[in-house]
């Protein structure tokens, strides 16, 4: 599963792991992406989204209907 949030667009960040001796090695900071299923009354069915923890909070605040409407206007297939 790709580490990309469908709601917020969060993608992995890149940086360094720094050891005690201060050697730097590349690492990747993945967002907390989870597969969640929501029932959308306007569509009359369930949809599955890959959303980050922040995306889940956005859905709680704005409502699934508004989020789905924005996703469809962006051309995301649900």
Low-confidence stretches: none
- Output the number of helix runs: 2
Structural class: alpha+beta
Determine the N-to-C terminus distance. Answer: 16 Å
Give the topology string: H per helix, E per strand: EEEEHH
**Helical fraction:** 25-40%
Strand content: 35-45%
Describe the main β-sheet briefly: 2 strands, antiparallel
Radius of gyration: 16 Å
Write down how many β-strands occur, each being a DSSP E stretch of 2 or more residues.
4
**Morphology:** elongated
Mean pLDDT: 95
Strand order of the largest sheet: 1-2
Pfam families: Ribosomal_L28
Organism: Microbacterium murale
Family: Belongs to the bacterial ribosomal protein bL28 family.
Protein name: Large ribosomal subunit protein bL28
Task: Note down, in words, how this protein is organized.
The chain has helices at 53-62, 64-73, and strands spanning 13-18, 24-29, 33-40, 45-52. It is an alpha+beta fold. The strands form 2 sheets. The protein has a two-stranded antiparallel sheet. It is built from 2 helices and 4 strands; from the N terminus they run E-E-E-E-H-H. A hairpin with a 4-residue loop joins strand 3 (33-40) and strand 4 (45-52). Helix 1 packs across helix 2. 13% of the residues are buried.
